[in-house]
Here is the input.
Amino acid sequence: MLFEPMAYARTRFVVVGGCFILGACVLLVRLWNIEVAEGKTYAGQQRDQTTVNVRLSPARGAIVDRNGVAFAENRASFDIDFYLDELVRNYRREHKNRLPMVTVPKRSGGTRQRIDIVKIVTTYLEPISLNLGFAIKLDEKAINRHYETTPTIPFQYRSDVDFATLAKFSERSLGVPGIQIAVRPVRSYNYGAMAPHILGYVGVPDEKDVAALEDGELIPEEVGRHGLEKAFDGQLQGKPGARVLQVDHRGYINKVEDEIPPTIGNSLRLTIDARMQYIVEQVLRRQGRASAVVMDPWNGDILAMASVPSYDPNDFIPRISSDKWKNLIGDPTAPLLNRALSTYVPGSTFKVVVSLAAMKAGKLTPNTTINCPSAIWIGNRLFHNDDKADRPAVDVKESLRLSINTFYYQLGIRIGINTIKDFAEELGLGLPTELPLPEDKGLIPTPAWLKQVHPLDHWSDARTANVSIGQGEVGVSPVQMAVVMSAVANGGTVYYPRLIEGVNAFDGSEVVSVPTRVRGTIDAGKENLDAVREGLRQVVDSGTATLVQLPYWKVAGKTGTAQAFRRVDGQTMRDLRTWFYCYAPYEKPRYVVCVLVEGGEWGGSTNGPLVHDILEGLHQLELGQVPDLVYLNPAAGNFSGMTSYTAPAMPSDGPVSGTAVPEDAADAPQSPPPENERFLPTSSKGPRGSKR
Here is the structure.
């Protein structure tokens, strides 16, 4: 009885062990059959079933003008692409899982090992280059960066390959997996260097772009780098597609297993009129550094906006060469700078703002006159008129017509700097325009601002006087000043400037409409505003801007010349900022034009002829004479117009900190006059100002 359980256990052990051995034998036989007897067959089947995912490039949406003329769209490009991740996998297979490595420094210090992708690419490219007869030229830095950031996106080795090279490559590429010919849509700027500061340009994504992607979001092949291309990149981007190819062990394609077509991005519709833009660009090229804006005064639409010098955004496709990039960023005339949205000292164009601010504050009427000598003392400084003429009774029209400084020195002090600042901000000065482009918001200096930036300094009447003629730290942009003149032209409505009309899908349906927006109103009274408008008309009829006169339109505007200086080779040079902004026709305004020139002479003599020719071009356009839009090369910059400058002799206590020095300041006496002689009263025609 005792041995019966033991016998049963032994029998069970033998049975289980036998089953195990039998199963192992079956597995071994099956493995031998697969690996040895039928190994070649299965290997062949596996090779035949290898698939490769090919990315299909999407097309960016077009950027068109208000009439549908395409500034930026797409063209077909035949490229030679490297699929770097596929090349690495193929190299790994061929070299028994061994990859070339290279030691590189870490950003945080020390070193790390990285796959030598350049060596892998060179290994496969050498036999192809020998067959095709071209030299291998690799941008090692670009390839390494591409593999580190976007390895799944094809690296464009050669773009716009000619047909002869394309045919040779198709015949003699040796079937290397990971090196392929691709047809892709490529960004094209149809008119070259026309409106580049508006459009911007595109480039390949970098680490920051990849890091900003959400989970599961596909990496784009190109991203907007500047201008509207950057601001509306999400709208303009299409979605990439994919094609699944079945290839054999040699890399030859057997068939297409699946395909997902790419999509086309939305298009951007601008307020810009390409014809007007072309007219402005051509006129502005007569200057080395300048900008111009044409605006519709009734809604704030920007019809043209140009800046010179300029650049060709096509140079960035698919990537800009290092030499061209160095030339662009190293050019002292700053061709990448959008001067229309940069800020400058406005000079006498700011007198329009001060006039309206005083009228709104009740300190100035059309009948008010101010005694304007050739110079007045303010604090310990003598402030001059440009022409040194004494004028006993000057009203606002005459002050604008002849741009009389002493009128505005006194007027500005009378109303105070905070009144000027508050009204300027109502016009949008010192505030963002909210255009979808990089911009300087500008500055209207105040005592609070001065205390913040220079705590030990103090505000004075001299500073207020300086601001009142648009000098000192005042900073405004040409677009902002076009908004100011538009409000004067349309009767007092202040619009936000508008550059985008809307966004459309590829099928033409509207995705987004961008409405006009009102910032506020001038509220200075119709009679007062009409007086300013009449003064601006007289500026062109018989004042400082007679060179703007046209036989068919009356024009109203204001000149300005602001002091500015630049250091060149250790020498201080005078680099004046000259302005002219206007509206036309005077009776029924249709256009506001603002032109700024760096290195000008006077607002009337430098900017006047430019504005005259722009208005002439707009008039001819209305008559049906449409300019032929042609490809523009970049406008070159220069520093012509700068003059040497020698600092004038100043009183012993020096000028007021932060103020501009009048050109004739050297004529100032060395000691101030008695306190009660520093200001002159207004005439009896209007409200009297207090003596100071």
In short: The longest helix spans residues 3-37.
